[in-house]
Design brief:
TIM Barrel; Pnp Oxidase, Chain A; 7-stranded parallel sheet; 19 strands; FMN binding; elongated; Aldolase_TIM; alpha/beta; single chain; 2 domains
Amino acid sequence: MAVNPDTFRDALAQWPSGVTVVTTLADGKWHGMTASSFSSVSADPPLVSVCLLKGIYTHDLIATSGVFGINILAADQTELGKRFAGMIPDITDRFDGVDCHTSETGVPLFDHALAWIDCRVIFEYEGGDHTIFVGEVLDAGNPRKSAPLLYHSRSWGQFADQLPEKAAVADVGITRLETETGVDLSADKTALAAAGVAVSPAEVVVDSRDPATVEAAIAAQAKVGIDRVVLLHAFDPDRHDAVLFAASNLARGGFTEVVLDDTAADANPLIVRQRLVDVSVRIKPSVTGVCLRDHAGLGLANALAALKSGVTQFDTALGGMGGLIATEDVLYLMELLNISTGASRAEAVEVAHSLARNLQLPRAVEPRPTWML
């Protein structure tokens, strides 16, 4: 007895897959459709396959032209997947605004896909109501390193966030306070270090807006051996590619810890998520860190977004000095999420109390509410 068609479709819907846009051309015009029925076939020779329903336009074009491209979409390209699936009305040109190039076959290949594959059809097989096109890979590229777009149970999605088991917290505010006030805070810094919070680790500072400082930092790293670099203006919403380029070069240049600094308070959870997902993948095995500001009450929201994006190093300041996210707040967040820091929040809070009492600091560094203790 044949399986019920609806049951069969529902069963297949439980299989998660990546999302691709299959492209081809006819009479010099580009065509494309969203598909998930793509698979690798062979590494030597390099072969891939795509299964397309007989009778649809793209199927017939590939059968006629003998060429196709595979564009693997990233997690932030849901709109692109829906566009080429015909799910967005009133779009007459699906390629409008999509940066593309061509390679060996002339089919459109997406500049900002996770990967693209340029293919020539060498075999066609009957597969029921589908045709299995096997393509010889003539060229391929990996423009981005990011999380993939997924499709499961007729819904678009991405990998579930995995929080780290461990994270490190540093205080970069107390040394700045010491410099500004001229007061010797050696005892407080020692107490903070004893609490498990790193105090102003040695670092090189780079401005992401100035490529010359990136090159200078790489040259300095080779001479002085400082492994940590702070990248200023790292959450500027208009400089995504520039920040990725700078961070990647710094990691390749020998820095094992790259800290993205929210210098101009540009960060929000969406920007943090988008920026860090791309950076953390690109600079591995280097550690991704952040120095966030607590503007508009977004400090902990940004910190949580950072944790979900692979960050394991947080630069902070006791009591939120200088507008940075407060050390004790971050430690509290880590406790709630069962993330080990090796630091004692109670001891860090006591240092904050000591600073507030001894230096008569403003409200920003007064003791935290009792529920935080």
